[in-house]
């Protein structure tokens, strides 16, 4: 192998250190001995349970709605499709706090849709799921749409000449063929939902056991009990590593 | 049952305007150079591409129907076997799409695999199949839904020479059993000559000639047809490397076979002589010149007698031999140039 030029190698080394060191620091400074005491409390258990439940529900919601949206974007000749794609990816680049404010304005008690429908999502667990789905679903949509575009449509044409309806083609041919994309999109979506902070705290607030998810708990603990914050961060780190391990084939060993 | 496909299409890169007719139990071969739009014609019949003409089956217009609503089965050039399904589930797919229960669909699919000698491969995924096996699975998948129209897009082009021969004869057998209309697209004249009852040659989106394989081969109307289909083609009964043609003449071939066969050799492989040739050629006939035509830089000499033969020779040779209508000449073909295909 040829040696890398210094102009590339040095920044690359700095970047690697920059990305790795904070995590190492977290592990070094973690209060390992006090861990059982810090994590054994009811608040931590509630926050973890709430986080896992809301992130999973938000992911299911994103799958049920996002995969069809990805299909529409990738497979139909809908007029203004490019505009729709641009609009649905806005939450991807929008600061999550702004997303939270926007959700309040639309789905809040006095919101554009919330008021006529009599919704009371803010400050409920359902509100957490909505906030997380709003932020995380675009990741799934974009990933799945990319897979759909890459998949050869002629398999679908072959299926249709065999008498399969579009729905059957979707279920039996399209979905199995883009399964890797759906899995990757689901994992991305779930981890994004798990880490969601800004939109959640803005739209759903921070009530223990109801809307206080792990990221919120970490942030609050940092002000009162830094040791607990580090311990909670450690839990999220473990969850993230597990997610990465789930994606190992795609990211750690790319072809 | 008759399929009438009046295909009209105008795109920047391709324009089609042709009428194709296929009858029940018959095979029509659509021949043409690459890029002539042959595959697009099939796609239009299957409903996969829109066009401005009319496709009817027994007078019923198909054009309004989506692909899944047409009684059409298609074998694609690249097959498109579903990679995530086993062989038997690929074949069962169309039956499942018609609402047949899983077990019954699998049972019927297994019957098709058995007919094509693929029973051992039922559980295999397409990626593990050889080219010839995959081709037959694709055929089984298309036939399993009992379509009334079968479309075959270059069914043999991806295969190596040895496999091709095998698959061609299997295909021939199953096409003979198929009761519906078959349209076969190919750029290989041998496929068309051997498999089809009728040949339609298209160039630049239009039909330039149509007829029985014999007619088209013997009376090519365009330069392209002459070059493509300029084959000497006969039928006969083989016994070892010796074939007795239907007309009584006998031909030595390069490979052994038994039973009904097609025999083919190229006009360029035919040599003409004033005197009976000495030496190696095992096929020697004494024939009479019945026609002369200039094709490119060769003269195509038609000869008649014991068997009709087309020979491509240089203009110089024509002068030297004094070839003219009515001239008697000795005609020789090396056995090594004579191909035999099971009928």
Describe the structure.
The complex is a heterodimer of chains A (255) and B (343). Chain A is mostly helical. Chain A contains 15 helices and no strands. Chain A starts with 5 loop residues before the first helix and ends with a helix. By secondary structure, chain B is α+β, with helices and mostly antiparallel strands. Chain B has 9 helices and 18 strands. In chain B, the strands form 4 sheets. In chain B, strands 6-7-8-3-9-10 form a 6-stranded mixed sheet, with helices on both faces. In chain B, strands 13-17-14-15-16 form a 5-stranded antiparallel sheet. In chain B, strand 4 (54-57) and strand 5 (60-61) form a beta hairpin. The longest helix of chain B has 17 residues, at 161-177. Chain B is globular. Chain B starts with a strand and ends with a strand. The mean pLDDT of chain B is 90.
Quick summary:
The complex is a heterodimer of chains A (255) and B (343). In chain A, 77% of the residues lie in helices and 0% in strands. By secondary structure, chain A is mainly α.
């Amino acid at each position: 192998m040829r040696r890398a030029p210094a102009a590339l190698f040095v920044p690359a080394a700095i970047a690697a250190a920059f990305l790795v060191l904070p995590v190492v620091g977290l592990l070094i400074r973690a209060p390992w001995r006090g861990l059982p005491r810090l994590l054994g409390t009811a608040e931590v258990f509630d926050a973890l349970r709430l986080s896992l439940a809301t992130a999973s529900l938000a992911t299911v919601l994103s799958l049920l709605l996002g995969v069809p949206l990805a299909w529409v974007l990738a497979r139909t000749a809908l007029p203004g499709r490019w505009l729709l794609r641009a609009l649905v990816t806005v939450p991807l680049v929008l600061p999550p706090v702004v997303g939270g404010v926007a959700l309040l304005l639309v789905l809040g008690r006095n919101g554009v849709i919330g008021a006529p429908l009599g919704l009371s999502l803010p400050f409920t667990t359902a509100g957490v799921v909505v906030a997380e789905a709003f932020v995380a679903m675009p990741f799934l949509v974009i990933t799945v749409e990319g897979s759909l575009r890459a998949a050869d449509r002629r398999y679908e044409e072959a299926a249709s000449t065999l008498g399969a309806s579009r729905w059957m083609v979707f279920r039996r041919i399209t979905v199995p063929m883009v399964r890797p994309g759906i899995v990757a999109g689901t994992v991305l979506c779930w981890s994004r939902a798990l880490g969601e902070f800004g939109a959640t705290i803005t739209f759903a607030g921070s009530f223990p056991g109801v809307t206080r998810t792990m990221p919120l708990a970490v942030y609050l603990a940092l002000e009162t009990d830094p040791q607990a914050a580090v311990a909670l961060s450690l839990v999220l780190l473990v969850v993230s590593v597990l997610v990465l391990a789930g994606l190992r084939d795609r990211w750690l060993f790319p072809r | 049952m008759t399929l009438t496909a009046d295909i009209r299409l105008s795109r920047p890169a391709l324009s089609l305007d042709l009428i194709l007719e296929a009858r029940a139990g018959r095979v029509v071969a659509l021949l043409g150079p690459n890029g002539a739009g042959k595959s697009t014609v099939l796609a239009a019949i299957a409903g996969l591409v829109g066009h401005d003409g009319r496709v009817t089956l027994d007078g019923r217009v198909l054009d309004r129907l989506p692909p899944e609503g047409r009684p059409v089965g298609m074998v694609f050039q690249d097959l498109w076997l579903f990679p995530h399904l086993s062989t038997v589930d690929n074949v069962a797919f169309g039956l499942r799409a018609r609402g047949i229960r899983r077990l019954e669909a699998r049972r019927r699919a297994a019957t098709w695999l058995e007919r094509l000698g693929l029973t051992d491969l039922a559980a295999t995924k397409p990626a593990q199949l050889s080219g010839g096996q995959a081709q037959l699975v694709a055929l089984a998948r298309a036939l399993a839904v009992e379509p009334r129209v079968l479309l075959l897009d270059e069914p043999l082009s991806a295969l190596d020479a040895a496999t091709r021969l095998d698959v061609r004869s299997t295909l021939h057998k199953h096409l003979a059993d198929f009761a519906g209309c078959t349209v076969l697209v190919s750029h290989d004249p041998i496929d068309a000559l051997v498999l089809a009852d009728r040949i339609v040659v298209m160039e630049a989106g239009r039909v330039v000639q149509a007829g029985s394989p014999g007619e088209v081969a013997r009376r090519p109307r365009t330069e392209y047809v002459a070059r493509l289909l300029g084959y000497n083609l006969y039928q006969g009964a083989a016994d070892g490397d010796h074939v007795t043609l239907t007309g009584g003449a006998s031909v030595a071939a390069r490979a052994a076979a038994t039973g009904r066969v097609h025999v083919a050799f190229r006009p360029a492989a035919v040599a003409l002589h004033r005197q009976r040739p000495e030496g190696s050629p095992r096929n020697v006939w004494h024939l009479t010149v019945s026609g002369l035509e200039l094709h490119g830089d060769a003269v195509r000499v038609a000869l008649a007698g014991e068997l009709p033969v087309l020979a491509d020779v240089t203009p110089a040779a024509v002068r030297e031999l004094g070839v003219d209508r009515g001239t008697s000449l000795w005609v020789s073909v090396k056995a090594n140039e004579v191909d035999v295909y099971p009928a």
